[in-house]
Design a protein that fits this description.
Length: 156
């Protein structure tokens, strides 16, 4: 058996699994048909997450940004002979500035899940973090007596 399908039959009671002939290989695909889909029950199982965007701003990128700004000639902004319209001059300045800004501080998308564990107190989280650090420390250490002391201290 190659295909595995796991269902919570307490929440989905009427379903059918049937072969699906796709003609691509000698193995048939499996089709799962759920007949009494209760979206509210399924939505309660879905992890909440949000997509965030952030810019990577650090000392190095700030210095490069300043350098590129200093090398910009700004001719299109200061050329009053070609254009006397203040709005056009400002838009020209803003376009040049934003081009340099977006090149040096790009946006990165990341997802962050909401951890809905109200029983996990600050003390438990602190203990878990401390236990993880001790584990990482003992993993890189060759001292067996230290490993024994720490492994007995982190057990409940």
């Amino acid at each position: 058996m190659i295909d595995n399908i796991f269902l919570d039959t307490r929440k989905i009671s009427t379903y059918a699994v049937s072969p699906f002939l796709n003609g691509l290989s000698d193995h048939d695909a499996q089709m799962l048909t759920i007949k009494d889909l209760n979206l509210q029950d399924l939505n309660s199982q879905v992890q909440d997450y949000h997509i965030y965007t952030a810019r990577d701003i650090n000392e190095n990128s700030i210095n490069e940004f300043r350098t590129y700004l200093s090398y910009e000639t700004w001719d299109c902004v200061f050329s009053l002979k070609n254009n006397h319209d203040v709005d056009t001059l400002f838009n020209s300045f803003l376009n040049n500035y934003l081009r340099i800004f977006h090149n040096h501080f790009p946006q990165h998308k990341f997802t962050k899940r909401h951890n809905h564990t109200p029983w996990m107190t600050l003390g438990i989280r602190t203990y878990c973090k401390h236990k993880r650090l001790l584990y990482l420390y003992t993993r890189s250490s060759n001292d067996t007596s230290l490993k024994n002391i720490i492994s007995s201290a982190v057990k409940f």
